[in-house]
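Following up on my earlier message about uridine-5'-diphosphate-xylopyranose. Here are the inputs again, as you asked, copied directly from the submission form:
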Amino acid sequence: MKITVIGCGYLGATHAACMAELGHDVLGVEIDPRKRALLAQGQVPFHEPGLGELLAKHVASGRLRFTDSFAEAGAFGALHFICVGTPQRPESLGADVSYVDAAVTSLAPHLRPGTLVIGKSTVPVGTAERLDAVVSAAGAELAWNPEFLREGFAVADTLQPDRLVLGVRSARAEQALRDFYEPCIEAGSPVVVTDFATAELVKVSANAFLATKISFINAVSEVCEAAGADVVDLARALGHDERIGPRFLGAGIGFGGGCLPKDIRAFVHRAGELGVEDAMSFLRQVDDVNQRQRQRVLQAATTMLGGSVTRAKIAVWGAAFKPDSDDVRDSPALSIAGKLHLRGARVSVYDPAAAETARAAYPTLDYAPSAIAAAVDADLVLHLTEWPEFRSVDLATLGAVVRRKQVLDGRNKLDLEVWRDAGWTTRALGRRTPALSPARLALVGPAA
Ligand code: UDX
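Thanks, got it. Here's what our run produced:
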């Protein structure tokens, strides 16, 4: 099919390249000239495993082109996918839908009758209903088909989504989308057909649920710490319950990124506009628990450094909001690094992919070229984004460059027993320390 993808950021660039891979002819519309020039050369302006290869392949094959012209898009496509961002508004918790509105109103005068406009952006419920009037007036039809891709797995998630949600108003629109996604459906992606409002809500509900799961385990991790229990063992045991499942029970410094934090805030905000804020008010606590994790790390680091971080040298391993990404939007790692710097610590940050984006966001921090370089003369190593390379750092080399052998694992992914065997003092959020905590000692006695 001939399709257009309006907005070629994370979501749009991935959708465009993957749909070309599925055999469609794709025209990407990107108004930022720098991004458009890179994409047209087959280059991805951000870090996403496998996407560069796919993009280059289909720019070369001719199945994927880019333009800034809505007139060209209107003439070209039978299906138009809206993939622009919906960031948090500066003045409130709500989502800024102005890019979605602009994309639809810019496209509308060029739409051919009978074509389909498909929203993929994450929007407050009710947006599709509002835009339907604009699209219908142009003789076209609207559908809503939210995207659930994860950064780092964006290509696989798009080629083989774990579900396709189709918010449609006609059998014709449903059939067009079923035909379009036929390779995914054939390969087993389940399809849920529903109305606009439900399709919009599925997306924010999914992200709110994931955020709640993470904050749940993080809240429990604080109790574990107080009681001398171990949150990693606990999460493993919880995860064996099929009703709960093991994923998104990784306790640590919490969630960040361009989606989870802003989506839960926008959900609360929209619920308020709909007069049901109380129903969603627990999401405020989910957000609070998440922010609290950052404070817990700062406190733990301060304790390890004898009560003050001022003038201490701290190696921060990781800046991206999660591994396999160079995205530092709302990154817990970078936020902690920034706060330590403000409190007078000498912070040296290393991230395998996010140095450039981190430098643009926090220019005053020092950035090192390797994990070892960041740790030279360090009083404390902070493990804040769980890149695999941090788990295989040579502890003898590391031990020789630091000033004090102290490590704090903010992601509960290091094998701290090995570190302790190498002479390190270790700490982690919600983990049993080798010596029993005072509260637990009082309960079980020193012989336990
Ligand atoms: C998320 C959703 O997963 C995806 O479906 C949606 O389309 C966009 O938002 P993404 O932002 O790429 O995807 O990241 P995700 O893998 O969900 O991780 C979000 C954050 O949660 C990261 O900061 C990660 O470190 C953190 N996390 C994840 C935890 O702290 N613990 C966990 O157990 C899992």
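One observation from looking it over: Residues 204-290 form a domain with the N-(1-d-carboxylethyl)-l-norvaline Dehydrogenase; domain 2 fold (CATH 1.10.1040.10). Hope that helps, and feel free to reply on this thread.
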